[in-house]
Every structure is written in structure tokens, then in C-alpha cells.
Write a structure and sequence with these properties.
The protein is α+β, with helices and mostly antiparallel strands. Among the domains are: 80 residues, no CATH class; 176 residues, no CATH class; 236 residues, no CATH class; 156 residues, no CATH class; 135 residues, SH3 type barrels (Roll), CATH 2.30.30.490. The relative contact order is 0.08.
Length: 1138
């Protein structure tokens, strides 16, 4: 890496960690003159050529974001002439100003008559508290004038479409706050036109600031002096209403919008012409000579009777089902304003607020508490939504048929078509070639094909692998026999692996055979056998062995005992695994199903050996099964909970060597990514019209082109806008599908499948009457989204990282920046900067996401957040930067869930803000369903009180890959794979390795003489101590520390730093007479920033400290710049910082 670039980046890290970035300023000529005078004073102290160039460049950058008049440019040029700058810099500065005056920064002349459109998207944040209260509860006719006066005070002279949309959305929201119905799309379009005329007719008076071309999302990003002039009395309210972005998407601004009735341009064009050309004349005729004063109105004009005519047509009442969304709650806005509601809401508004359901962050959604309608479901049931969707499907099908008929007619009228048809019928060669017997070439080809098929059948009759050598085997061949272990002179230990596997499987038969064959139905109606593991027998077999699993289960059961009223919560995870070469044939690809218990705590669930492999079926076989993996899972659950030996919900009697317990458990969670959900519940997702099984109101038929046609996930940016389905609602939908399957025609039934979003099969999981009678099948309340795949595995962050680097143009800089950081050894992060090389970026752009593993996304998340805070100062990148930071904050909250649950509602609020900023940044048309799934994270967290991550289960796949790759017996592939994986797990969990609940060393061994000498020299141990050491240890939280890592630990009682923890480099991990401790080299506190989640330390020499392992908190990502360590802190520790 270029050393100049490296030193510059380190300087950025050192100098920008405390102070905010350059404020966005709106400048005029006076500001420029004052700033240039300050530059001259600064250069008097240090007349450095490089400093002069940097200051002048920053000065011109500030001018780029301002709208300057010709008078401003004259004053600026005069100041440059009289300045003390060098002649060379004066020439450069004057040339640059003249260029900007003649062309502008947006190819507009400095004296152009047409005003440059200005962008302001977060309008509520710029209103004062008093103005927001008037918008909520004041005179409805004053709302447009309040907004116009505020825009004028901010220096807005020309509205960009996004600014106009934001203003109209706030007016529509004010209408709903006043207890009136939400206007139709046609009415909103009329309101937008009237608002534009009002703004154009308004004459600003006393504007003290110059306008910006693009205003930041929050006023706090603006210069303080500019804010004091724009807000001489009351400060801005800083209200954050991300729901307005969704409401704005429903506000048509153009006459060609498909939101308008009948979508007919011919019908709307006369109305548009009248609105644009004659509305002002209409105002003149109605209001006489006072028309201009009325348009400029305010409170005075409205009180005198001049009102905007639009509100006279707005009807009172609540929002109907077709409104598309519920109005924002006044209480939520008042909490942000820190003001009580001064007026009581109207009866209609009060009834509307009672219909709204609370956010899952406040309490569990009703779908999790009782049967019936879900949160925000309005007055429609799932059946009614399906009927509405069916109408759309039929209309689309009808239109498609009409189009086909018209096309057929045109083809029939084509004379060339008839001529071609005649030629085809008169062609003698065509008739001769039609008969297969008369065609010698065809006959020869068929014969060759038969020969190849015969040869292939002969090959398949050969044995898949050589016959195993009886009684012999080693770790290399695992019982199949090889030249090494069959040699009589072999001195190693022989292992009869096959016999050992058979003995292990045979030892677990307390609740039936360990490996069972489940009878399934194929697509052709034939019988198939699907092998699976008997979970009850597996648990009893491991518990009876009296080893590690016996100790662990007793420890956890004592801490959280199970009972018939409070059973343990079982969790199922299933995913596809590809054993062998990832680039080779897909023949070995398998569906793997794992099971564990949530009561084991995140620490134990982070160990892949605590997950049990219940099923491993080749994808090739699953594709032949009716309903696919859904039927396989149905049979597995029926065998588990309808077992002839007993139901685990009624308790399993487990007998150990010296203790017996009764374990009660049920199925509480199905942990999946989107693809697994699609195959398990037969939900069509992207292939159908419903991209989310849990949201009953999300339905979309794809259209080829439309101005307002954004992806369906971008139209539902809040939890309240998504009407949640219930368990009973989903199961009843399948009952209706079963009835239609018997009565409807094939084509009609296909339309119902598209409208409902299901791929129906009588053998599907949702059709299991056994599981429904046992109350085991609860598709809505059991489902938990896999946040690792949603965010990090070709997910949200993979897209967002690419988009923000493209928007800022910082990919090359970030490539060099990553080389400055060091990661904990447990993350195994190597050469992450290569992900952002020029060649890699070309591949990323082609795929439209960062092509990397989920663990690599996790590793770069903290450096990327700090990079955006410190190295991306351009105000043009604010929206893109804030969007990425919001998604990184979502990831940080989910990671911290294992150690500290976030406050109720925080996760949902962060996701909604991230979605809104993503749309505001211009990425709404690229949003995929994985973005929408993030809205459900809060509901899952409040329901289960945890959010399991799937990095552990990706490691669990290694066992399936290991044995699936080496297995050659494809006839009994599934059963052999299950036997080998579970035999290995039986051996591991039944071993004599003691279970340790607290922190402990991993793979300890006696210390070497060299390390012992160093410990003695530092007075850490004495010669009589029995000392072991290790390179890694596991903390009580489950985290793993390695020697050489930079770690954080609890501060001593005499700590004088403002944060409750200290930093040091871990030198040794030792165990002295049962006392587990770590030796660290201390660091001194320098500074910290809770917003950027960073702390800085100074290396304090070679002084060593010994402390108990319980004092360690975690290891961190860091860089070292001349003895100053910059550490990136985990989110849960930032909450404790002062």
C-alpha cells in the first residue's frame, strides 16, 4: 500500500475521532469574505504552501453547496484581489469563482432566471415544535401556509419533486390527524398542484439565510450560525417520522402516475391541463382583488375566510381498508416533541387510534398472544385479502388473453402467414421426414442412443465402492480398509470403524430404533422411505452414557427445570448443504435438519456439538417427494410428537448412571432463511404474488413499467403498514385451498394458488391433521427469521455496502483503509482488503452486491462504520452514509442480543429508520424481500427473548460435508450419512470430558521452560506452582480469546478513566492450581466516543498485570498508530460509557 495514503488515513483516524465533520453550510458573499479573512490570519501563523492549497480547496467546496448571486461573486472577487494570498493562488481562486459564476455547479449559469430545484426530504425535523403542534391540532387550512413559510425561512425558492412530495405527504398526514379520511390518489394529485401554485405565489419576507441545494436529513448537520439565523426564536423540533416516506410513495406528483384512477392518460390529460393553466384564473375569479393575499395567506388570511379549496372536499371518518396504511399516532409524535397533547382528539380520530395495535417493541403483537386479527390488520381477514388478490389475478389473466387474441388476429391477416402455411403443406420433404421409419438418419440416432443407455446401465451395476476389509480400519480409511492398516507390520492402532458405528447406533433404542424409515409419497404416487433419527432415543442414549452430555443436561435442567406446564422450547433449523467440491455435480447436495433447545443459552448453542442432526436427505430425492422437504418435515414431526412410546410434551424419562430426570419439550421455533421457508411451508414467495407469508396485505402482480412501480418491499417500510397473519388464519387458508382443489377447474385453481401464495399439495406440512390436533403446528408464532442470512449472506448488508461505496466513490480508499486494522484471531479474518480490489469490485457491480461470506461481512462491519464516520465528509453522501450506518446498527443490536437484550422497540425503530433512509438515498427500486424480513426481527425477539445466529449451524454443516463427501454407497446414502454423523456426536458428547459452565482454557498443556522463566521473572508464579497454559480460552459468555489479542477487561476500583473498563494485550493464558488467569500488558486511557463506538489507548510499556479470566469482557478490532491503539467497541459496552 502507498505509504502516503496510509499516513493520511491514520491521520484521519487520529484527528477526526473527537470533533464532528465539516458542517453543511449555506453561504453568501459576506460569509465568503469573512472566511477568507480568517484564512489570511491562519496563514500568518504558518505560511505553508500545502496548508494554503488545502484551505482554498475547502473554501471552494463550501461554495459548491450554496446558491450565490452575481453580487456575491463580485464581493468575493474583490476580496480575493485585496487578500494577502500568493499570486498563484489568487489566480486559481479567481478562475474557479468565474467558472462557477458562468456555469454553476449544476451546469446552470450564475445569472440564470430559472431557479435550481432544492431538495428537503425530512420536513418534520425542520419545523419548530409550535409549528408541529399546529400541523397536528391547529386549523387544517393553515397547514400548507405553515409549511410554505418554513420552507421560505430556510431559503427554499424552488421545489424539487421529492421536496414537494414530502410537503404533500405531511399535509395528507395532517388531514388524517384531524380525524378525516385519507384522500384518494386523484384528490392528492389535485392537492399537490394547488400546493405548487401556493408556493409559487408566496412572496418571502425577511429571509435571513441563503438556501441549500440539498438539505441534510437533520438540521443538526447544518452550521450553528446558519441555524441561529434561520431559527431566531424556536429551534427545530427534530421529529423523526420515517412513516412519511411510505405515505409519500402513495402521493402521485405526475399526471402519468399509475396511482391515479383508471391509469388512462387520455382521461387525465384534460384535467391536468385545466389544473395547470386555469387554476390560478379560477382563484382570481373566486377571490377577486384579494387573490394574491389569499394565496400568500397564513393565520390572518385563513381567519378572514380565504382558504385553500382542497380541504372542503375531504370527508370525515376513519380510514377504510383501501387506504393502504393507518395514520401516525399523535402520541408518538408528541413524545418526540416532549409536549403533552393540548387538545382532545376528535371522536373519529380517537376511534382510529384505538384500532391501531401497539408496536411489538412495547409488547408482544396480538398474533403472539391470542387468535384473531394480527397487529394493524384493520377490518380485513386473510380470506378477504385473498379474494381481493384473486380479483387482480383474474383481471390480469383476462387482459393477457385479450392481448393474445388481438395478436392472433393480426397474424391471421398477414398474407405472408398464409403463404408460409401453403409452402409448409406442399413440401414433399417434410412429409417424407415425418415418418420415423422412413428416416434412416433418425433411426441411426435412436440406435446410438439405445447403445449409450445400455452401456450406462452396465456401469451402474458395478459396485459403488470396493468391499470393506473385515475387522480392519484406521483414521485414514474409517473402516473401509487400505494398504496401510491391512499391512501385518502396521504398528498403529486399528479401528473397526464400521463395527463401532453399529454398536453406537444399537446402544440407543430406549424409545425405538435410533434410525427410522418414514413412509413418504412421491409426485407419481409411489412409496418412498425417508430415514430420520429418533430424537428421544438419541437423548436417552447420550444421557445414559454418563459423560459430558449427562453433566451438561443436569446443569441446565437444574437452572431451568422443565414441566408439563413449562416445557423446554425446541428449535428446528434446516438448510441445504453441498458436500464435496462446490463446483462439481449437485448429486450429493442434501437437506440437513438440526434440533436443539433454547434453554441451553446462547453460549451452549454456539457449540455445534449441541445441535442434533435429525435428517439428511439428498435434494435429488426431495425433489421426487410430493411437497418436497415440507412432507419430510411433516413426517419427522409426526414421528417425534406422535411416537408410540410417548409424547415429549408429556415428558421423556431419562435414566442416567446416578440420576434420573423427566424432560418435557415442545417445538417452539423454526429457524430458517427465506429459501427454506419457501420449500418448507410451500410458500411461493418471489415466484408468486406474496413475498412474505406472515404479512397478509402484501400482494403484488409484477408490471413491466410504471413511474411509481417500486418493489413491493419498498412500499411497506413500517411494522404498522404490514398486517400480520395468525396461526389460525394461515391454516384456514390451507383448508380453503383443499376445498378448491376438489371443486375448481385446473386453470382456476392455479389462479387461486397465485392469489393465496401457496403451492398446494395434500401431503404438505400445513395439511397435517396430526400436528394440528397436538397443537404442534403453529406456522406464524413458531417462525423465526434467520438474521444472519437476511443481513450477511447475500443479504441486506451485502447490497448496502456496495451501494454506499459506489455512492461515495470510496472503494479504493476503503481497500487501503482495511489494511490498517487487526482482528481477533477467533474471527480468522485474513486479507479482507482484497474484497475491494479493482477486479473484485467489477464482479460486485455485476452482481449488484458484495460477493463474500457472511463472516467476512461481520468482520468488516465495525471498520466500515468508523470509516463512514471519519473519512466520508462530503454532504452529498449524507443519505447514503446514514442508510449504511443504520443497517450496521441493526447488525450491532442483533449481535449484542446474546449478552444484553435491547430496550423494547429499539430494534424495530432502527430497522424502520434504515428502510426509510434506504428509500431516501435512491435505492428503493433495488430493495429485495430480505429488506422486508428485517421488520419481523422485533416480533421474533419479543416472542422468544433471543435471536439465535446461524454461524454455529454453518460450522455444523462441516460434519455432513465430511461424511457426505467420503460416502460412496449412494444406494443407502441417507442412512449411512445419518449413522456416521450421529455416531461421531455420540462419541463426543458421551466422552469423559468434564462439562465446564464457567470460563476455562481450551486444550491446556504444561508450560514450556521458556514461558515458565518469564512468569517467574515477572513474579506471576512461584517455582512450586503447578502451571498449565493455553493459547485460547472460552469466557462465560461463550466468546473465545487468543493470546496476542487486544482485549477489554473490567476496570479496577481505583480506575480514574470515565469508562468502566480498561484495555490491554493478552500475553499468556495460564491455570495455576485450578485458578484460570490471563496476563496482559496494560494500556492507558486516552479518549472515547460513544457515538462512533471507539476508544483510544496508549501502550504503557512492558508492565504486566495478572487477572482472573472472569474479568475479561471481549477481544476487539484495533489499529496501532505510533503507540496509540484505536479500538472499535462492541455496542453493549457503549451503553455503559459516560
Amino acid at each position: 500500500m502507498n505509504m502516503h495514503v496510509a499516513s493520511w488515513l491514520l491521520g484521519c483516524v487520529a484527528s477526526w475521532s473527537h470533533e464532528p465533520l465539516i458542517s453543511i453550510m449555506a453561504w453568501n458573499g459576506t460569509d465568503f469574505v469573512k472566511e477568507l479573512g480568517d484564512i489570511e490570519k491562519l496563514l500568518a501563523f504558518n505560511p505553508n504552501q500545502g496548508l494554503q492549497e488545502g484551505l482554498v480547496k475547502a473554501l471552494l467546496t463550501k461554495c459548491d453547496h450554496s446558491q450565490l448571486t452575481a453580487g456575491d461573486y463580485c464581493a468575493m472577487l474583490e476580496k480575493v484581489d485585496h487578500s494577502t494570498l500568493t499570486d498563484e493562488l489568487k489566480t486559481i481562486l479567481k478562475d474557479s469563482l468565474l467558472l462557477r459564476a458562468s456555469t454553476g455547479t449544476t451546469n446552470e449559469g450564475g445569472s440564470a432566471i430559472v431557479k435550481t430545484p432544492q431538495t428537503l426530504v425530512n420536513l418534520p425535523a425542520y419545523l419548530t415544535k409550535a409549528e408541529m403542534m399546529d400541523v397536528m391540532q391547529g386549523n387544517l387550512y393553515d397547514v400548507p401556509h405553515i409549511i410554505i413559510r418554513r420552507l421560505s425561512a430556510l431559503g427554499v425558492k424552488s421545489l424539487k419533486e421529492t421536496t414537494k412530495r414530502a410537503a404533500v405527504a405531511l399535509i395528507v398526514q395532517s388531514i388524517m390527524w384531524h380525524g378525516k379520511s385519507k384522500p384518494s390518489a386523484d384528490e392528492i394529485y389535485g392537492l399537490a398542484q394547488q400546493f405548487g401554485l401556493l408556493f409559487a405565489a408566496h412572496k418571502p419576507s425577511g429571509c435571513m439565510v441563503s438556501g441549500l441545494k440539498k438539505y441534510p436529513p437533520l438540521p443538526t448537520d447544518l452550521d450553528k450560525d446558519w441555524l441561529s439565523r434561520a431559527y431566531p426564536k424556536d429551534p427545530p423540533s427534530m421529529v423523526d417520522l420515517p412513516q412519511l416516506f411510505e405515505l409519500g410513495a402513495q402521493c402521485p406528483m405526475r399526471s402519468t402516475s399509475k396511482l391515479l384512477s383508471s391509469c388512462s392518460k387520455k382521461k387525465l390529460q384534460p384535467l391536468v391541463d385545466k389544473v395547470e393553466d386555469r387554476l390560478l384564473e379560477l382563484f382570481k375569479s373566486l377571490l377577486g382583488g384579494n387573490w394574491q393575499a389569499a394565496l400568500q395567506g397564513g393565520k390572518e388570511s385563513s381567519s378572514s375566510g380565504a382558504k385553500i379549496t382542497f380541504f372542503d372536499h375531504v370527508k370525515d371518518g376513519n380510514h377504510g381498508p383501501g387506504d393502504g396504511m393507518q395514520g401516525l399516532s399523535k402520541e408518538d409524535v408528541s413524545k418526540q416533541l416532549a409536549l403533552p397533547l393540548t387538545n382532545q382528539p376528535s371522536a373519529a380520530a380517537e376511534q382510529q387510534q384505538q384500532q391501531q395495535h401497539p408496536s411489538p417493541g412495547v409488547q408482544d403483537p396480538p398474533a403472539l398472544q391470542q387468535k384473531g386479527h394480527a397487529a394493524g390488520s384493520g377490518n380485513l381477514s386473510l380470506e378477504e385479502y385473498e379474494k381481493q388478490a384473486m380479483i387482480e389475478v383474474e383481471e390480469k389473466t383476462k387482459n393477457g388473453r385479450n392481448s393474445n387474441k388481438q395478436g392472433t388476429g393480426q397474424k391471421d391477416k398477414n398474407p405472408m402467414k398464409k403463404q408460409g402455411t401453403g409452402k409448409k403443406n406442399k413440401n414433399p420433404m417434410k412429409k417424407q421426414g415425418t415418418g420415423k421409419k422412413n428416416n434412416p438418419v433418425k433411426k441411426q440416432t435412436t440406435g446410438d442412443k439405445d447403445k449409450h443407455q445400455t452401456k450406462a446401465k452396465k456401469v451402474m451395476k458395478k459396485p459403488a465402492a470396493k468391499k470393506a476389509a473385515e475387522g480392519y480400519g484406521c483414521k485414514r480409511c474409517r473402516g473401509t480398509g487400505c494398504d496401510v492398516c491391512e499391512n501385518p507390520n502396521f504398528a498403529g492402532m486399528r479401528h473397526d470403524m464400521k463395527q463401532a458405528v453399529k454398536q453406537a447406533i444399537a446402544s440407543c433404542t430406549a424409545y425405538g430404533a435410533l434410525v427410522q424409515q418414514l413412509p413418504a409419497k412421491s409426485l407419481a404416487g409411489a412409496d418412498l422411505n425417508i430415514p430420520c433419527i429418533n430424537l428421544a432415543s438419541l437423548i436417552q442414549g447420550m444421557y445414559a452414557a454418563g459423560g459430558y452430555f449427562y453433566q451438561m443436561l443436569n446443569h441446565v435442567h437444574e437452572a431451568s427445570p422443565s414441566s408439563i406446564g413449562s416445557p423446554w422450547r425446541g428449535v428446528l433449523y434446516f438448510d441445504e448443504v453441498h458436500p464435496g467440491n462446490q463446483l462439481s455435480s449437485q448429486g450429493r447436495k442434501v437437506w440437513a435438519v438440526y434440533f436443539s433447545f433454547l434453554e441451553l443459552s446462547p453460549k451452549l448453542l454456539s457449540n455445534e456439538h449441541h445441535w442434533f442432526t435429525l435428517m439428511a436427505v439428498r435434494t435429488e430425492l426431495v425433489q421426487k417427494v410430493s411437497a418436497g422437504i415440507g412432507q419430510c418435515l411433516r413426517l419427522l414431526l409426526e414421528s417425534m410428537f406422535a411416537n408410540e412410546f410417548g409424547n415429549p410434551e408429556h415428558g421423556l424419562a431419562l435414566k442416567g448412571p446416578s440420576k434420573s430426570i423427566r424432560l418435557f419439550f415442545t417445538l417452539a421455533m423454526t429457524l430458517q432463511d427465506g429459501s427454506a421457508q419457501k420449500h418448507t411451508y410451500s410458500n411461493r414467495q418471489d415466484a408468486g404474488s406474496r413475498v412474505c407469508m406472515l404479512c397478509k396485505n402484501i400482494f403484488s402482480l409484477r408490471s413491466k413499467s410504471s413511474e411509481d412501480d417500486v418493489k413491493i418491499s419498498a412500499k411497506h417500510l413500517t411494522w404498522d403498514a404490514c398486517h400480520q397473519a395468525t396461526d389460525d388464519g394461515l391454516l384456514e387458508s390451507w383448508e380453503r385451498m383443499e376445498s378448491r382443489h376438489r371443486t375448481e377447474s385446473k386453470s382456476k385453481f392455479q389462479q387461486w394458488q397465485q392469489a393465496c401464495g401457496w403451492s398446494f399439495s395434500p401431503h404438505a406440512l400445513m395439511m397435517s391433521t396430526v400436528l394440528r390436533s397436538l397443537n404442534v403446528l403453529r406456522p406464524a408464532s413458531q417462525y423465526c427469521f434467520d438474521w444472519m442470512h437476511s443481513l450477511c449472506s447475500m443479504g441486506v448488508l451485502n447490497c448496502i455496502i456496495l451501494w454506499v461505496l459506489e455512492a461515495t466513490g470510496k472503494a479504493a480508499t476503503f481497500h487501503d483503509y482495511l489494511q490498517l486494522w487487526q482482528w481477533p484471531k477467533a474471527q480468522k479474518a485474513a486479507a479482507l482488503h482484497k474484497l475491494f480490489s479493482q477486479e473484485k469490485m467489477k464482479a460486485h457491480r455485476k452482481a449488484n452486491y458484495i460477493k463474500c461470506s457472511a463472516s467476512e461481512v461481520l468482520a468488516i462491519s465495525k471498520p466500515l462504520a468508523y470509516f463512514l464516520h471519519t473519512c466520508c465528509p462530503s454532504p452529498d453522501d449524507t443519505l447514503a452514509k446514514e442508510a449504511c450506518l443504520s443497517w450496521l446498527e441493526v447488525l450491532a443490536i442483533l449481535i449484542a442480543c446474546t449478552l444484553q437484550l435491547p430496550p423494547a422497540g429499539l430494534l424495530l425503530q432502527t430497522v424502520e429508520r434504515a428502510l426509510s433512509l434506504t428509500v431516501a438515498a435512491g435505492w428503493g427500486d433495488q430493495i429485495a424481500p430480505k429488506f422486508h424480513w428485517c421488520l419481523h426481527f422485533e416480533a421474533c425477539l419479543s416472542r422468544f427473548r433471543c435471536m439465535p445466529a446461524c454461524w454455529t449451524l454453518e460450522r455444523k454443516h462441516k460434519s455432513v460435508r465430511k461424511y457426505g463427501t467420503a460416502t460412496s454407497n449412494t444406494t443407502n446414502f441417507e442412512q449411512g450419512l445419518l449413522e456416521e454423523t450421529n455416531a461421531e456426536q455420540l462419541a463426543l458428547l458421551s466422552s469423559d470430558t468434564p462439562f465446564r459452565a464457567g470460563p476455562h482454557l481450551l486444550q491446556p498443556h504444561p508450560v514450556s521452560a521458556k514461558v515458565m522463566a518469564q512468569l517467574l521473572q515477572s513474579n506471576i508464579v512461584s517455582e512450586s506452582d503447578s502451571c498449565n497454559c493455553s493459547k485460547e480460552c472460552r469466557l462465560a459468555s461463550g466468546a473465545v480469546l487468543h493470546t496476542g489479542d487486544v482485549v477489554l477487561h473490567h476496570a479496577a476500583a481505583d480506575n480514574e478513566s470515565p469508562i468502566p473498563f480498561c484495555c490491554g494485550r493478552l500475553q499468556w493464558l495460564i491455570e495455576v492450581d485450578g485458578y484460570v488467569a490471563g496476563v496482559v500488558s496494560r494500556c492507558e486511557y486516552v479518549s472515547h466516543d460513544a457515538v462512533k463506538q471507539v476508544a483510544k489507548w496508549r501502550i504503557a510499556g512492558e508492565a504486566l498485570s495478572i487477572m482472573q479470566v472472569d474479568a475479561f469482557l471481549c477481544s476487539v478490532v484495533y489499529n496501532n498508530n505510533a503507540g496509540i491503539l484505536t479500538t472499535l467497541l462492541p455496542r453493549h459496552l457503549c451503553n455503559s460509557m459516560a
